[in-house]
Design a protein that fits this description.
- This protein is of the alpha+beta class.
- The chain folds into 3 domains: about 180 residues, no CATH class; about 100 residues; about 100 residues, OB fold (Dihydrolipoamide Acetyltransferase, E2P) (Beta Barrel), CATH 2.40.50.
- About 30% of the residues lie in helices and about 25% in strands.
- The strands form 5 sheets. The protein has a 5-stranded antiparallel beta sheet with strand order 13-5-4-1-14. A 5-stranded mixed beta barrel has the order 15-16-17-19-18.
- Helix 5 runs antiparallel to helix 6 and helix 6 runs antiparallel to helix 7.
- It is elongated, with a radius of gyration of 27 Å.
């Protein structure tokens, strides 16, 4: 074996590791606490749940509004929620009391920010930025349920607790003068809190009926960004101590997990996108790609879907080019691309090392069975291991399956396979298969998309 050919990919591997370590701090935003100060909005802008245009908007703020800044993160200010902002709490973490007038937490609860554009629990997934969870026994005024995409109650809408924060772009603000702050605070002090309406008499509920009725029409919808004066006592009730569950709830979406979807869910997302403005489309796609980035980041470098994700971020930059978010999206997407390119170089170095290993006699023996299965059947477009795709999972982006290389165990992507009603693709996952059909390139990243007519299992999955 040529010694030079072995050292070249090994050197690339080491250099990529060094570069990855040097660039690691760029992967996450650094939030720096500041001595609080007030700012005035110089234009209409959005209050977002995170410090990036990829995070969804919590509320649409108006020019001239005052906000209290407590931290900064690159081009963004972290600000206290404006008065009247609402959040939601999971039904598993609270119960309805006082004939539906309030809720009370039954364990540590992590409120989540309500998506102003799509106020469903699936779209309002981000935890509110605050220093601690809400302890059990805390009481809130209850404004109504928040539904999931199946019109089922998943949470309770309540006033945002003290210490809840959102993010605004710093370029849309200026420092408030002392006179402006004094006038603003004076108006707040003069405002009379809204008194809760007397509860109407209700028939006694059965013990098992703990959930509110679902809304029956549009009149039951709740505006998550509505401005209303909240009763301060709703947010500051003393927590109770009679509880068995005190651990902070953990989410179900763990990094690296892949949830299979369907073409219908992707079609629904496409139909939803048609009703959105160009800016909303960019924001929605940014959030989708941010989720995909988290999944790909958790994958092993050798197996990660890096190249397709790079192309998706490049397409995002083009999509945002004609919007007011173009500059912000360019910085955000390019930072992701730079980090992905580092991993891509590392992945390519691993592939070269694996290619060298596969040239040995031991690697050749491992493929004897596959060679026998392929004997006389060379009409396949591609042969590889069929696995789910973390990016094209049918939830937002179209559903496709991924074909990985089986040479030397590198796991690089050879092609993507579209669903076929006549072929039970789900039953073939993790198997080595041969695929025949029509192929077309995917955008300009070089990975093919195959519409299969035949998929043969050459070696069953583990």
């Amino acid at each position: 074996m040529n010694t030079t050919s072995l050292w070249r990919p090994l050197a690339l591997f080491i250099l990529a590791l060094v570069a990855l370590g040097a660039a690691a701090p760029r992967a996450g935003a650094q939030v720096n606490d500041l001595e609080p100060f007030w700012v005035v909005l110089t234009r209409d802008t959005e209050l977002r749940c995170g410090d990036s245009p990829s995070w969804y908007a919590i509320a649409n703020l108006k020019q001239g509004q005052l906000l209290k800044v407590n931290a900064e993160s690159f081009d963004w200010y972290r600000v206290a929620y404006p008065k009247g902002t609402r959040v939601w709490i999971d039904t598993r973490d609270a119960r309805i009391i006082e004939e539906g007038a309030r809720i009370e937490t039954v364990r540590n609860a992590a409120p989540r920010a309500i998506n102003a554009s799509v106020p469903t629990t699936e779209s309002s997934y981000r935890r509110v930025n605050m220093q601690s969870v809400v302890p059990p026994g805390t009481k809130f005024r209850y404004f109504g349920p928040i539904m999931n995409n199946q019109n089922q109650t998943d949470g309770y809408i309540v006033p945002a607790p003290d210490g809840a924060n959102g993010f605004v772009i710093a370029a849309a603000t200026r420092r408030a003068t002392e006179a402006e702050v004094e006038q603003f605070l004076a108006r707040q002090n003069q405002a009379q809190p809204e008194q809760p309406k007397p509860a109407e008499p209700k028939p006694e509920a059965k013990p098992e009926e703990t959930q509110p009725r679902q809304p029956s029409g549009e009149g039951d919808a709740v505006d998550p960004a509505a401005d209303s004066d909240e009763d301060a006592s709703d947010e500051g009730a003393s927590p109770g101590t009679d509880t068995e569950e005190t651990a902070e709830p953990t989410g179900t979406d763990q990094p690296g997990s892949v949830e299979m979807g369907s073409d219908e869910s992707a079609a629904d997302a496409a139909e939803e996108a048609e009703s959105l403005s160009p800016m909303d489309v960019v924001i929605q796609r940014s959030r989708q790609l941010d989720e995909a980035y988290g999944v790909v980041a958790a994958q092993k470098t050798a197996d990660a879907e890096i190249r397709p994700l790079i192309q998706e971020f490049r397409d995002l930059i083009e999509l945002a080019a004609e919007t007011s978010l173009a500059a912000d999206v360019q910085r955000y997407a390019q930072a992701r691309i730079d980090l992905l390119n580092i991993r891509l170089e590392l992945q390519q170095a691993i592939e070269e090392l694996e290619a060298i290993r596969s040239a040995t006699d031991e690697a050749a023996e491992n493929f004897d069975e596959l060679d026998e299965a392929l004997a006389g059947r060379r009409d396949y477009i591609v042969v590889g291991r069929l696995v789910p795709s973390a990016i094209y999972n049918g939830k937002r982006l179209p559903l496709m399956f991924r074909l990985q290389s089986v040479e030397g165990g590198s796991g690089r992507t050879l092609a993507y396979v579209t669903p076929n009603e006549e072929i039970a693709i789900d039953s073939m996952l993790n198997a080595i298969v041969g695929v025949a059909g029509a192929a077309r390139p995917q955008s300009n990243n070089g990975v093919r998309i195959i519409e299969p007519t035949v998929i043969d299992v050459l070696r069953p999955g583990n």
